[in-house]
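About this split. The held-out portion is used to measure sequence recovery: a designer receives only the structure tokens and must propose an amino acid at every position. Recovery is the fraction of positions where the proposal matches the reference. Here is one held-out target exactly as it appears in the evaluation file.
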């Protein structure tokens, strides 16, 4: 599939996925979300890809859904159908991907754009970036998994206020509340996020994928279920080539050379 509204580049295990509609602050059209679904499916299946860096072209990360998209009315005004068909599959693919996703939030992240940042595993924002749950401003509730992500990241009180009052918050406030991992100067964002994503791409891919799965399932599991999950995952990881390399490197006091196997 040839992409028009996104761009993808791969380098030694690290894929960089860029939302590419800078004239609209990378607002998500039906065309873009279709391309994203296809791309996430391919990245998940590609064993040569060991981490993904997600960012936006131009001065925005993602301004949410493109309300001026001419294809938007094809669901007959049924917003639920649009979520089922386009947006929810992308969030599910991001959370199910067995490799890390780093978001480099380079500007406004609103609506589903904020959901993309929260669905990533580690989010780093430029100092000038902002975050906004814009839905209540147009008579909707947050979607893209936001009603699931928000209370887990910031607590119920802040989640309700962010969703109901729809304030735009700064990157620094997002960090203080636990929405993102870090804030850096605008000019340092891509270097910092790229280095972090490269570190993950060079890491023990199977272990990172199992960590992602375990943390994702923890909220719904009992302690006994989580202990069993850890046991089963550790059993598999203990037979991996990367585990053997990690132990050998530790004993030899050298940096491990993980292969993702």
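Reference sequence for scoring:
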């Amino acid at each position: 599939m040839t992409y028009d509204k996104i761009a993808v580049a791969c380098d030694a295990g690290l894929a960089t996925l860029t939302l590419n509609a800078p004239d609209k602050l990378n607002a998500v059209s039906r065309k873009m979300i279709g391309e994203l679904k296809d791309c996430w499916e391919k990245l998940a299946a590609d064993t040569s890809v060991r981490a993904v860096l997600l960012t936006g072209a131009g001065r925005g990360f993602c301004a949410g859904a493109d309300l001026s998209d001419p294809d938007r009315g094809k669901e007959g005004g049924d917003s639920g159908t649009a979520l089922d068909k386009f947006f929810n599959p992308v969030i599910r693919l991001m959370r199910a991907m067995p490799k890390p996703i780093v978001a480099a939030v380079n500007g406004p992240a609103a609506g589903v754009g904020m959901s993309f940042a929260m669905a990533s595993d580690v989010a780093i924002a430029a100092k000038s970036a902002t975050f906004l749950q814009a839905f209540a401003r147009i008579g909707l509730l947050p979607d893209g998994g936001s009603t699931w992500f928000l209370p887990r990241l910031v607590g119920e009180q802040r989640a309700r206020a962010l969703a109901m009052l729809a304030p735009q918050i700064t990157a620094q406030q997002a960090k203080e509340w636990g929405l993102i991992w870090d804030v850096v100067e605008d000019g340092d964002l891509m270097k910092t996020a790229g280095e972090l994503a490269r570190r993950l791409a060079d890491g023990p891919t199977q272990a990172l994928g199992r960590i992602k799965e375990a943390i994702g399932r923890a909220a719904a599991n009992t302690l006994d279920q989580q202990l069993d999950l850890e046991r089963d995952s550790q059993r598999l990881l203990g037979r991996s080539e990367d585990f053997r390399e990690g132990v050998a490197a530790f004993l030899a006091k050298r940096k491990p050379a993980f292969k993702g196997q």
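Annotator remark: DSSP finds ten helices and nine strands in the chain.
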